[in-house]
Structure formats: structure tokens, C-alpha cells
Amino acid sequence: MVGGISVILLKFMKSTTYRFEHPEQPRSLSGISKDRFRLRRHKPQNHVKPTSRQSGRGLPLQWLMQEIQTLYPQPFRRRLRRTACGALAGLLISTGAWSAAPASTPPDVNPAITEFRVAWQRVASGQPDQPDPAALQALAIYPYLVAARLSRDLAGPAPADTDARVSAFLTDYAGEPVTHPLAANWLDSLGQRQAWPEFLAHFDAARATPRLECQRFAALLATGATNGLSQAITKAYLTGQDRPDCAPAFDWLKAQGALPTATIEARAQLALEARNVPLARTLAQALPDAAATRIQRWAALVSSPVDTLRDVIAHPQRDWPYAGLTAGFSRLVRSDTDTAVALYPQLLKTRRFTPAQARPFTRLLALGLAWDRKPLALQYFDALGPVTDDPAVQEWRIRSALWAADWTRAQRWIAALPPQLAHDPQWRYWQARVAAARGKQAVATPIYTALANGNGYYALLASWRLGRPVTPHPTPLADQPELDAGLDAVAGIQRARELYLADLASQADVEWRTALASVTPDQRQQAVWLAHRWGWYLQSIATAARQGIFDAYAVLYPRPYRAEVKRAAQASRLPTDWIYAVTRQESLYNAQAVSSANALGLMQLLPATARAVAQRNQLPIPAGRADLFDPATNLLLGATHLRELLDRENGSFIVTLAGYNAGPRAAQRWLPPAPMAADIWIENVPYNETRRYIQRILWHTAIFGWEASGKGQNMAPFLKPVAAPQAAGDADA
């Protein structure tokens, strides 16, 4: 029963949890850049060599800008299913749904919200319910408590007794967000009990999870409704992921003779593309010898690329799948470019590739060498010839030329950019920068001037190159308090506020966004100010971004936790602007932020890192998660850690930021052997997320400084040349 409760409440929370993932290195909650922000999933655009720190930190689960719901990793779900009731409270805390230390809650909060929070904790911890006071029942969010209790009861010893209450609840609140997780939980319970007629009557394909889809197949098979079912099951079968819940349906498909060899091999290939080697090897066992050999060889190339590619070269007469060769070479490039360079000509020669067949290998090697900042990359980019539809190559060959100070190649490749890239401030800046490096200042200056009149990181760089202070150009967002009453009257807004005060941030977000979908455009803009006044800065900034509002700095760059930030700044000897800039980037001021890897609080500290920083600096050691949700503790330890990195990096602000985001070892690995201009070094940071992290914090720092002083900011001290500790000199070219 305990395991069932874990599953039910996990799903209850999961259905309203969001994660925003950057390519390559998801770690910190990214700030919002007008020219780079996208409300969609990013695909990896370049290679990453993850370090232990880099791979171990994720984005805060409360990040609300991603429009696609994502689930927790499968291993995490399995662990949760093995835990007892006490883990349920931990789950609610870790997702930001409930917190034992609601640091963000105003002191004048409605006492009924406190009652709600206590009642919610009782559900999470498996304690018996207490009678609900009238004030608690009067809350707009009281139905959420009822739904949580119903979800719990579905996992009890007599779930059928709960069915009527669940059905009535779903009818009473039909169409409201509070029903979504409960409906999914009920369907899952019906499926586990094989109550197929009722399951099918309430199944909603639009909200079906993969598990519910598999249960639907079981329901249709059990009720004999198999017309057209083989096509639907085949579609579900063709995935590179494990789907154990669909095993009975897949067995039925095989028994019907509707699972041919080609389909099994196609799924094995999908599994290999998803790097699910165990699944591919299992599927290969059901294939004829020739097909099984293809899959097994592909799996070997993915699992052990060096040894297997050497075997490929040593045995040219053997048949190797071309897709497996490219996958294996890609893995090799990501781990060892020197070996890839050595094997590349041998591979092309022994396999007798045509130029078209060789091109993907040349491309992979060129990109890998560029990510490793090796000048040899230029040779392989040259070998690719004209490139018209490959943004990764188009951008990284320019970066590689910049790193090598090869201004001729850089100019030629910038000129070859397609219009959608060439007009971006990023590449307009580099057009000017390269022109200046080639002695054509008359070409560079007008471009710099135009960029400096805008906003963002490349406007900052343009001002720096012109020798001017950086002055942001805000587009104010009018505050119309007279519209607040209309917003406050919207039921969804009322629920969102109460959920936010109860630290149910994910559910609050769903209610908020659902409510704003039906208000006027003016009200939607005013909602940015309304959330700001609530102190819900994350939602304020997210709401603005969804409307394309990026430059309303008065509302988008608040300074909460002033006393705590001031104390942290004094203790760490860092400017408050720096601490605010990093905090905004890391958590958007969400004191309860929790990453997928358990980085916590305003400055996203891993507990082990926080303890180590405290010990090294004779500060109070945080006893647990609650301490790191405390703004004063988190800001002090985060600022102290930032100071440690700054001292380690000889005062280089940008290398410090790289170390804070990707880990100090990665930052050290990226240092050039000789002093290099800061803008070129930043542009060549190989992790997309870290590069953008540095760029955005520089811009945040300029805005906070400008807001505080009313004056343009001199960013030259932040953009000193970068070099390894033993290197010295200047690099301004």
C-alpha cells in the first residue's frame, strides 16, 4: 500500500511540474535573453564533455517557461516506488509543492493557508486527516486538498469505495486544472484493478501518459475491441525507450503475426539512436542472424567506439552498418579528438567512402576539434567546402577562426552566413569585430554604434569596444493598478495566489497560465505587475517573457532579500549587483528552487558544496535542505563560494562564472595558453548553457549597476583578457 501511495502522489505532483532544459548542460535556471529566448525544447547543437559537476546539476523544477511537461527520470521514479510514506513528503518538498521552510511566504498570510499547508503535510506523510476548519474549507484551493486525499485513498486497501467520490469530484470540477492529476491517478488505479469498462469510459487521449496508453491497450484487448488496434500498438512499439507496461500488448502483436523482423530491427535502431544499448541487444535476440549482427555491431560501436573502430579498420571485409559507424565516430570525437584524428583517414580509406559518405565524419571531426579549441579544426572545416544548411558548422567554424585569430577565414565565413543568422546581433557584432581586427575601423564603428543603441550582451560588447559605458535602453511596461481588481476577481488568479502562498508553485503556475489565457491583452500585461507585487518574481518574469516583454527593467529586475544580500555582500566582499545578477540567473529569486540534481535555493547550491564552503570559511554548516531554503544562509554560502572561485581565477569575473556554472575544472580546462580577448574566449566556451550563462550574467550585472546608480556601466574590468595562470601579457586584438 505504501508503494502505491508513492506512485499516486508522485503522479499527482508530476502532472503539474515543468522543467526548462538548455542544450548540453542543464544546471541552472537560465535568465531570459530577448534575442535567444525560445519557448520550445532545445536540441543539442554542439558537443559536451561533461564533468562530474556539470552532469550532476539540473535546472530548478519550478522553472515555468518550458511549455512542455516533462517527467522525472525513470530511476528516480523507481526509487520513489521503493520508499515509505516519509518519502512522499520529501517528494512534495523537492518539487516545490510543499516546503517545511516557506521562506517566501509573507508574514501576513491568511491563517487558513497555514492550516492548508499543515493538512497537506499530513496527506504527504500518511497521517490521519483531522476535521477541516470552516476557514480552510472556504479557501479557493480547498479542492486541491480534497483531490490529494482522494489520490491517497485510491492507493488504499479499498479503492473501489473511493471511485464514486472521485467521479463526483471530477464532475463537480470538470475542466479545472485541479482535476488533471486526479483523473490520471484514477485511471491508473482502474487499470491496475482491471476495471476496464470504467477505464475506457473515462480515458482521455489528450492527457494520456505512456503508462495509461499501455493500460488502454490492455483494456481494449480484454474487452475484445481489437479493430485497428495492431496499428496503434505498432506505433507505440516503435520507440527507443523501454515500455514494460506495454509488454502484454506487444506480445499480442507478435502473436497476431503483426510484428515483422523489419519492425523489430527498426525499434532496435531507435534504441541505439537513443543510446539504449541494453534494449537494442535484447531486441537483437529476436532477429535473424544477419539483422542481429548489424544491431550487435552498431551497439559495439556505440558502447566501445575506440576498440570497435580499430576492429572496423582491421577487418575491411566485414559489413558494418553505416549509421553505426557515424554513431561510433561521434562518440569517439566527444571523448578523444586526438584518437579520432588518427583513425579518421584510415576509416575513410578502408571503408572506401564516397565524398558524400565521408562528409558526416569530416563534419563530426571539425566540430569536435572546434569544441576542444584546436586549430586543426580549421583544416577540416575547409574540407567541408560551402555549407548552406548547417548552423552548427556555420557558427563553430567562425568561432574556431576567432580562437585562432584567423581573421581572413572569420570574415569569409561570416559573409557566408544565411540572412537569418547574419542579421542576428551576435554575428553583426562579430562582423564588426573582425573588420576592426583587419584594420577596417570605418566598417566596424557604425555597426558597433547601432548595436550599442540596443540591449543585450552584444550591445554590451559593442559599447565596450567603442570605449563607452553600457547604458541599457528600457521599454517601460505601464503599471495600471486599476486593472488589478479585474484580475483579482478571476477565480483562477485567486487560486494561483493561494497556491503560491501555500508553496504549491507548480500547481499555481498551471492555474495562473490557464486563467491568463482568457483575459484581455491589457490584463495579461498587467499580470506582470500583479505577480511582481505578490513577490512572485519568477512568475512575473515568465509572464512577461511569454508576451515578448524583455526590456521593462523596472519590473523584471527587482531586488528582493535586500538585508540578506547586503550581509552576504559584506561577508564575501562582493558587490550586491553581482549577487543579484547570479541569483536572478540561477533561480529567478525563487528561494524554494530545487534542481533535478538537488541543487537548492536562491543560488542553487548542492548540499555537499554548501557544507564544504561553510567548513572552509568557518561558517555555520547547513544541517539540511531547510537551511539552504533560507535566503540568508543560501546567499551567504553562495556569495562565499563565488568569492572563492574569484580568488582562484585571479579576479577574472567571466572565468569565475564559468566555474560556478560548469565547475572549476571545466573552466580551467578551457583557459587558453596565451592571453586571449574576453569576448573571443566567451564565444568559444563549448557548453552552450555555460556560454549563455556568462553572457546573461554580464548583462544582468550591467542592468543592476545602471539601476542602482542611474549611470552607464564601465564593463571593461569585467572583460579583461583571459589566460591560464602562468600566462601573462595583454590580448586586445
Protein described:
The protein has 733 residues and is mostly helical. The protein folds into 4 domains: 2-222, no CATH class; 261-426, 70-kda Soluble Lytic Transglycosylase, domain 1; 481-535; 562-719, Lysozyme. Helix content is 61%, strand content 0%. Helix 20 runs antiparallel to helix 21 (377-384).
Secondary-structure blueprint of this entry?
Layout: H1 2-14, H2 52-55, H3 74-81, H4 85-94, H5 111-125, H6 134-137, H7 142-154, H8 160-172, H9 179-192, H10 196-202, H11 210-222, H12 229-237, H13 247-255, H14 261-273, H15 277-284, H16 289-303, H17 305-314, H18 322-335, H19 337-351, H20 355-371, H21 377-384, H22 391-403, H23 407-415, H24 419-422, H25 425-437, H26 441-452, H27 457-466, H28 484-488, H29 491-501, H30 505-516, H31 521-534, H32 537-546, H33 553-556, H34 562-572, H35 576-587, H36 607-616, H37 625-629, H38 631-648, H39 653-662, H40 664-669, H41 678-683, H42 688-709
Helix pairs in contact: 1-4, 1-7, 1-9, 4-5, 5-7, 7-8, 7-9, 8-9, 9-10, 9-11, 10-11, 14-15, 14-16, 15-16, 16-17, 16-18, 17-18, 17-19, 18-19, 18-20, 19-20, 20-21, 20-22, 22-23, 23-25, 25-26, 25-27, 26-27, 29-30, 31-32, 34-38, 35-42, 38-39, 39-42
Label the structural class.
Answer: mainly alpha
Beta-strand content: under 5%
Number of extended strands:
0
Rg estimate, integer Å: 28 Å
Instruction: Give the termini separation.
Output: 68 Å
> How helix-rich are the residues, as a percent range?
55-70%
Q: What overall form do the CA principal axes indicate?
A: globular
Number of domains: 4
Quick check: average pLDDT?
87
Low-confidence blocks of residues: 1-105
Largest sheet: none
Number of helices: 42
